[in-house]
């Protein structure tokens, strides 16, 4: 690989190098994207052991596809892998015949998405209490809204990528995101009112 720093090489170039027999290129791709891919899986399955299994299966599929010369996602490695992972999650739930339940994990700060007004100390305390219940609130969103919310704000995917992965139009993905945020705002407002009235 000459003296070029592997971390400065694009995903596409790493894919090309791996296809041509350079194993460390795949290790770098996994290192680069493991957190986002694993977390996207975990948020859907809510089980760390199962998420690890699906993550491993995802990369077995990635390796097999690359080695078979069937990769043609020019410059879109991460969305492609997340799409594979998403399909494996769906396959898993089909096998166990139950719907996926999505919640968030520590560190996923939805409040970066939902902008708050200038707040007084009282409002700040209420917001912090609301934050404690946020995972519970997200649990109440319809699954399509949870999915788009997580892919957009944790997986850092564009709405185009989300529409490709979920098989819906960009407008539908945008609509689901808008509904998810509106529903969360309503639930949080209800929660704040009940806290103020107690």
CATH superfamily of the largest domain: RNA polymerase sigma factor, region 2, helix turn helix motif
In the CATH hierarchy, the third-tier topology of the largest domain is known as: Rna Polymerase Sigma Factor, Chain: A
Helix content: 55-70%
**Sheet with the most strands, sense and barrel status:** none
Structural class: mainly alpha
Question: What is the number of beta strands?
Answer: 0
What's the overall average pLDDT, rounded?
75
The 3D shape can be described as elongated
**Could you name the ranges where pLDDT drops below 50 across 5 or more consecutive residues?**
99-119
CATH class of the largest domain: Mainly Alpha
Please write the string of helix (H) and strand (E) elements: HHHHHHHHH
C-alpha end-to-end distance = 65 Å
Q: Could you say what the CATH architecture of the largest domain is?
A: Orthogonal Bundle
The count of domains is 2
Number of helices: 9
Strand content: under 5%
Work out the radius of gyration.
20 Å
Task: Tell me what you see in this structure.
- By secondary structure, this protein is mainly alpha-helical.
- Helix content is 69%, strand content 0%.
- It folds into two domains: 7-96, Rna Polymerase Sigma Factor, Chain: A (Orthogonal Bundle), CATH 1.10.1740; 110-197, Winged helix-like DNA-binding domain superfamily/Winged helix DNA-binding domain (Arc Repressor Mutant, subunit A).
- The radius of gyration is 20 Å and the shape is elongated.
- It starts with 10 loop residues before the first helix and ends with a helix.
């Amino acid at each position: 690989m000459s003296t070029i720093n592997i971390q400065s090489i694009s995903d596409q170039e790493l894919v090309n190098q791996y296809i041509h027999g350079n194993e460390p290129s795949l290790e770098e791709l996994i290192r680069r994207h493991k957190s986002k891919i694993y977390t996207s899986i975990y948020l859907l399955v809510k089980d760390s052991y199962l998420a690890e299994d699906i993550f491993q299966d995802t990369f077995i599929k990635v390796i097999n596809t690359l080695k078979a010369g069937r990769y043609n996602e020019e410059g879109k490695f991460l969305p492609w892998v997340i799409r594979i992972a998403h399909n494996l999650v769906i396959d898993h739930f089909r096998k166990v015949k139950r719907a996926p339940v999505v919640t968030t994990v520590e560190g996923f700060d939805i409040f970066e998405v939902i902008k708050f007004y200038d707040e007084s100390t009282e409002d700040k305390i209420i917001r912090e209490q609301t934050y404690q219940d946020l995972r519970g609130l997200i649990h109440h969103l319809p699954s399509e809204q949870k999915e788009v919310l997580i892919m957009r704000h944790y997986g850092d995917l564009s709405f185009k990528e989300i529409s490709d992965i979920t098989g819906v139009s960009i407008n539908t993905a945008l609509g689901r995101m808008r509904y998810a945020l509106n529903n969360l705002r309503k639930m949080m407002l209800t929660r704040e009112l009940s806290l103020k009235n107690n």
